[in-house]
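Quick start: what a row looks like.
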Amino acid sequence: MNNIVEVNYAQTGKSTNTDKFGMREMQALVYKKREQPYLLIKAPPASGKSRALMFVALDKLKHQGIKKVIVSVPEKTIGRSFKDTRLMEYGFFSDWKVAPYFNLCDANNEYHKSKRFIEFLEQESCNILVCTHATLRNAFKEVDLTKFDNTFVAIDEFHHVAADADNSLGEIVRQLMSESSAHIMAMTGSYFRGDGVPILRSEDECKFYPITYNYYQQLNGYKYLKSLGLGYHFYQGNYLDAIKEVLDTTKKTIIHIPYVSSKASAAMDKYEQVDLIIKKCGTLVEKDYNTGIVTVRTPDGRLIKIADLVEDDAKSRNLLQAFLQKVKNKDELDIIIALGTAKEGFDWVWCEHCLTVGVRGSLTEIVQIIGRCTRDCEGKTHAQFTNLIAAPEAEQADVTKAVNDMLKAITSSLLMEQVMAPSWKFKTRKNEEDEHTRGREEFSTLVIKGLKEPSTEKSKHIIENDLIDLTATVLNSDIVARAIGGGTAPEVINKVLVPKVIMIKYPDLNAEEEEEVRQHLIASIVLKGNLEQEGNSVQDEGSEGNRIIRLANRFINIDELSISLIDSINPFQRAYEIMSKELNAPVLKVIQDAIAERKFNMSVEEAKILFFGPYKTYVAHHDGRLPSIDDPNLKVKRLAQAFIVLKNLKIRYEQGLEFKIEEEF
């Protein structure tokens, strides 16, 4: 396929290399904080969160007085990530072992799950249990809270929790924290729910120690995976008439079909859709009723194996899930067809292609789906995400812009450049630390005169780790939203309302700490402009295809990246497909520089005036020496910024990413 954004990685191996204990980079970061009672791990799919949990849990069992470990996952298939794992052979002090009787995600353990959960808390011979969120919720109603004392409760895909009183999983977390001595570890690839409801109440969230590991660190540090492709294909009529043209049956593929209620489903029930997709792949040869796997002969004579996760029949579904838990060879399976499953936490390491039909309502869901194919394994050099979408009822220019915005948002999110919620490190002055930290992916440093430095570890921790989440909280606050909509003076919002939100979210801060956090928060928001939480769902109004335009419009500040990743538009199924430029290392650097320019707050017009006047005068009067971006003289620094803005603009133009600029430059 050639209609992709192509992201190439350095293949440093850093994120998959292990230390003397067998820990990868992210896992070692988590393990350093293993003595924290409440840990919040924010790391992308395939980064190794499940094994990080194992390391921490085993240490708590042996060294921290914890007697029981409970691991809770959204669905049974995700429980596979917590099966027995040999850790000692890689240098750790113990292996991870789950007694089959207390692995309640095992397909064979279908009955009396709550009873077994309660039995687990009563007995002493086994100390690890794996269950679903549903089992945890059901059993929790029947257990005295004191039974959770000295337990370690790990909740995977933590964004399923909510501060809403009606969210029973959230209520469990609150009760465990306030009424027991239980330790908690929360793991998620996205800390935004997408419905505007915060995940945790402020007084609970401030007790968690957050550890963040970004997507760029993970993907750039892979050993085998070289590139990631993102493609958008528009069709007219029925998607099943177009799917064959974007489905390569030689690639290990997960197909996510649309929900029956969506317009993309073509008014078919889900079983009809699955049957027709299988027919598009080839001729049915047989179905193995012991596993649920369907064998199909392709038109070129190959035999491929397909798993149907859309099937609702409990017995058939359990057989298939049992099979998937035991898959150890890439030749055992070729295609998975899914509906609401095989997204977050689903682990099929050989997956090369995620083919998703219909517009997904949030960037969070898209990134989760992309994560299914970005696991590193031998023999896999390229991962592909393809979105097959009904043609929008809009002018082609509008669609092109919307897709371009989507590509910019997704690419920036995967690189963790945080276009929607950038991470900035603010200081009152330059020092040696800035020189050492320049170039890190996590932060860009900006000097702000008079800015309060954090005076305590508490405020420092919030400023360095929680500004993104705090920004979302402020912008979702009713009092702030009403004030902005009512034309309230910025000074009132910044100095009166924002402190109220901070006080609610972090009730244990003193006045000085609160002011330090407020200043850094305001600096961050002012720098990146008015933002919306990226996870907000887009309502399904109008045509299904038009949703991509509304979704792209959610990504405020994307327009500040005045680049185009669109190369051309080609005919596709009587509609069209967006052809995207190859996003290789040089182009990624251009995008990174474009994002970095935003902290200059300089228009192209100002840059031209400075460059063709004071800049050239400065160079002439200093024997050809160029202005430095680190010059203490603000006027000289501004000249250097002007040069950078125009230089990057010219590079973008030469690479076809920017509109034409004056020939004289």
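That is the whole record. The radius of gyration is 26 Å. The first strand starts at residue 5 and ends at 8.
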